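tl;dr need the bound structure. longer version: we got a ligand (zinc ion) that a collaborator sent over and nobodys looked at where it sits. i said id run it. heres the input, straight from their email, havent touched it
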Amino acid sequence: MPELPEVEVTRLGIAPHLEGRKVSAVKVLDGRLRWPVPGTLPKILPGQQVHSIDRRGKYLLIEMDTGYLLIHLGMTGTLRVLPSTDPLKLHDRVTFEFGKLSLRLHDPRKFGAVLWHPKTKGPIEKNILLQKLGVEPFSPEFVGELGADILYQASRKRTVAVKQFLLAGQAVVGVGNIYCSESLFEAGIHPAKAAGKLTRPQCVRLAQAVRLILKKAIDAGGSSLKDFVNSKGDPGHFMVQTKVYDRKDLPCKVCKTPIKQIVQGQRSTYFCSQCQKR
Ligand SMILES: [Zn+2]
């Protein structure tokens, strides 16, 4: 499943090719995605210019003249910029034409989304899909003590395990399942610890760890940027080397203790019982 780093790398991959360009046509090949693709897009988008491509959580926000395209990759979606002469592929769902280039959403399982937020509806931050998201891990609001404050305040009185607290994304967005295990290991925090019991120093370490782990994943994906302008590449996951995730029974890279796997909320969590004492 594409996580925040994959979405950010997608953004970095497609933005330089599209910013400043005008849409020449839109074709909705199959609009039955997670929510129906608005049937009005082929009428309203041609002639509109791409002003910027930003990201909020796992949503790409493409600012056009009169509104924003919100694109989510769902479970299996990929976005590519291709020569418009490249033949369409099975599972291509929506194609945005920009003269000689096409931006294509390829999504076999159709959990992705393409939505439209007209500027007449107010700022994009107020969109119902975005307004409840936690802070961005790389925003100034999450740096240093501020990030620790956010985690500390949001977790008070919460009895849920810290792993699930992080995964829920209400305090900080983008810490998917792999990155939860890796961040908690990096911060030396047991994944089953009640979120409300996190100490202030643990919140400082966790905020730092989240940013470090996500930054590493984005950097690892940087090498696949060229794959966003051809149809062949499949960057997949960027976490090249995990320290705990998917390493059950293998020795901890710090202390050699075998890594443990537990299930929390039906998702696997990996940790080192020595480095992450309860
Ligand atoms: Zn260890």
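gonna send this back to them w/ a short note. The two ends are 30 Å apart (CA to CA).
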